[in-house]
Target: Phosphoribosylglycinamide formyltransferase, chloroplastic
Amino acid sequence: MEAQRLLSGFCSTPPIQNTKTQVFVKFPLSSSSASFAQSQKWVSFKACPSISQSALSGKVFQCRNSRERIEFLASDKEDLRSGIRRKKLAVFVSGGGSNFRSIQEACLRGSIHGDIVVVVTSKQDCGGADYARDKGLPVILFPKTKLEADGISPADLVATLRRFEVDFVLLAGYLKLIPAELIQAYPRSILNIHPSLLPAFGGKGNYGMKVHKAVIASGSRYTGPTIHFVDEHYDTGRILAQRVVPVLAKDTAEELAARVLREEHRIYVEVITALCEDRVIWREDGVPIIRSKENPNEYS
Ligand code: GRF
Model:
């Protein structure tokens, strides 16, 4: 029993630091030999991030160096992230990498409970790859093409991501089709962002400024980013989130693209935050939805 093993460690060693969340423990004070902060009938200590609080809730454990039995009580007010393992992320880029940067910044400031551990690019010298190298992140070239002869094979890509222990793959302006090997290796774990309200203006060849030009030419009054899980085809995987952006009467494609991109940066960070906090739920009909952090009974 993993939780019991970890808890035994707590009882004989100082509590693990580096987390704001406290776990409350029923503990008879008279016989307490532990160095926990005490308050009336309760003692509390910092929770190890690798223990799931829901797994501990209501359970009774025995300390290794004590005959005391302690009971975990999960409070409603506790941070949902307590006990949730920090996720390892791979970001795929082919262009400027502004979405990649905003994800990286959100990881560094702590809004996303995860870290980018590797970047994959189809263009060795694109802005996103340059930025990654600048930040000291490993950059992998995929796929192998005439122009990019050093690219690795799909099997090596999967093996590399496994070696980095990647939990989630995030496509951020990556222009190549994702190989079936990767989709099978990472089920329900690969996200893409597209700059239109899918299923409109998606599919092969619909990328970059072409999307925004087509939106304006169609007379659509609304557009906006879509985040979807990735399947074997371009832009057809299950939709997870969308945001509506107005198309103004005098918009150029560049103006519209800039307005949509600002919204992309916001929504992608919000969705990845939810993903890393295990708040993406799959409805019975196969549609993924996001549980609200503030109100766990609400979904979007
Ligand atoms: C974004 O518009 C995204 O929706 C699309 O490619 C563009 C990438 O931009 N998939 P950036 O490289 O993140 O700046």
About this structure: The chain has one domain: 78-290.
